[in-house]
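Q: Sequence in, structure out?
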Amino acid sequence: MAPSEEDGVVEEKESKKKLASPLATAWLTFYNIAMTAGWLVLAVAMIRYSYQKRTHKGLYRNIQKTLKFFQTFALLEIVHCGIGIVRTSVLVTGVQVLSRIFMVWFVVHSIRPIQPLYHLVSDWCCW
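A: Exactly. Output:
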C-alpha cells in the first residue's frame, strides 16, 4: 500500500514531540505528589473540622494557611507551561491558576465577612 499524505503528517507530529528529560519527569512527579498530598491534607482537615464542629463557620480560619500555600504553589504550573515541560497553553493555565489565587488572596482573605459563607466550602472542594 502506498503511503498517504496523512501518514506523513503523523510522522512529522511524532518527530516534533519532545520527550521530557529525566530531571523534568522527576520534578513533575515530585510536584504532583506534593500537590496531591496537600489537597488530601486540606480535604481531611475540612472533613474533620465539619465532623467535629458540625458547622462550616470557622473552617476558613482553620485551613487558610494550607489553602493559601497550595494555591500559591500552583503558580509553578504556569512556569511548567512557560518553560515547556508540559504541553499546555500558558494563557489557559495562567487564567485558571490566577483566578483561584485571586479568589483566595484578594477576595476571601481581604473580605472577612464572606469567610464564613457556605458557598466557599464548595469552591474549595471543587479545586
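Confidence is low (pLDDT under 50) at residues 12-16.
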